[in-house]
Amino acid sequence: MELHYLTFEIKAIKSSKLQYGFLVLRDKEGNQLKAYRATSGQINYQYPAASSIRGKGIIPAGDFKLYKGYPSSVPGVVDNKGRGYFFPIEGDNIKKVGRSSIGLHFDGGRNGSSTIGCIGLENPDSFQEIKNILLVYFKDNTWIELKVIYK
Fold first, then answer.
1. In 78-132, where do the E strands start and end?
2. b/e map of 115-136 (b: 16 or more CB within 10 Å)?
3. Residue 2: Cβ-neighbour burial (10 angstroms; 0-12, 13-18, 19+)
4. How far apart are CA 137 and CA 143, in angstroms?
5. CB 27 within 8 A of CB 3
6. Backbone dihedral angles phi then psi of residue 126, each to the nearest 5 degrees
7. Could you give the CA distance from residue 96 to residue 104 in angstroms, rounded to a whole number?
8. Beta carbons within 8 Å of 102's beta carbon, 6+ residues apart
9. In which domain, by residue range, is 139 found?
10. Which residues neighbour 148 within 8 Å (Cβ) at sequence distance 6 or greater?
11. Cβ atoms 146, 89 nearer than 8 A
């Protein structure tokens, strides 16, 4: 498996139900290597215009860089085994909507409210799997391309 970039695809709509999409690991030709169920934003804040609502809205669509992360003890990022990790996401689209501190992490749910703009994987074992894949990738690379696509 030769990882080249990531995509996060989600149906971006205003809904009273939490919307899920998939974080997909892709090779150089764009073929899917692995896919993980993930979400971004809170219920009623997963539509495109909500990407500028700090602390609630979905990650903006666009091209980003995901960087090697660090262990985290922030509530909502830590799973039930005490494992927490945060991969920062940076890009012009995040700055344009006045956001910061967006990343990829396990979605601890914060009492069912989901992420506050980050990309969160709902399954802790899936997050550990992707974390390990990315940490191997980051041994030889500083960042990896992430494309966020609204469906």
1. 85-90, 103-106, 119-121
2. bbbbbbbbebebbbebbeebee
3. exposed
4. 9
5. yes
6. -65, -40
7. 19
8. 59, 88, 89, 94, 117, 118
9. 5-150
10. 7, 8, 10, 59, 60, 61, 62, 63, 64, 119
11. yes
CA angle 52, 76, 93 (to 5 degrees): 25
Name the domain count of the chain: 1
User: Helix count (H) and strand count (E) of the chain?
Assistant: 2, 9
The pTM for the full model equals 0.93
* Continuous segment of H or E residues that includes residue 77: none
- Please give the torsion angle defined by the CA atoms of residues 123, 126, 127 and 131, in that order, rounded to the nearest 10 degrees: 180
What is the average per-residue pLDDT within 105-121? 78
Q: CA 78 to CA 130: how far, in whole Å?
A: 15
Cα–Cα–Cα angle for 106, 11, 39, rounded to 5 degrees: 5
What average pLDDT does the structure give for the chain? 91
Segment 40-58, tens digit of pLDDT: 999 999 999 999 998 899 9
For 62-110, the pLDDT digits (tens) are 999 999 999 998 888 888 888 899 999 999 888 888 888 899 999 876 5
